[in-house]
Design a protein that fits this description.
The structure is a single chain. This protein has 7 helices and no strands. By secondary structure, the chain is mostly helical.
Length: 144
Amino acid sequence: MVTKTRTKHIYEVIELASKAKTKQDRINVLRENESWALKDLLRGAYDELVQWSLPPGDPPYEPAIEETVPSTLHNQHKKFKYFVKGLVGDQMMGFKRERMFIDILEGVHPKDAKLLILMKDKKALAKGITKKLVEEAFPKLIVK
């Protein structure tokens, strides 16, 4: 019998890594759960080259109901390009870009939504998840 394992939500990976006892354990958790969504979140939070075209702070949004989230960051991370200065989102009106960000926040797990807000505000995602740790877990991910 083949057993399928569920892909973890990004917040689950961050929580597991944060709770790991040693630095090497945190690195291992990140590497074992490597995905483009995770790496985009980490780079967005810690790479100084990534500058967000969104206002600071919590936007006005209604968090999704945990049991029935319609989407995940594994699906939504591809839209991050609309929120980064210098990319395709520069062509959008500010209110449209902000509405798109709010739609993502309302469509993913509430804990993932909180991570997105921390990412765009360039704040630490969780205790023990630092820029230095990310650089060790994923060399060359952080450019600056």
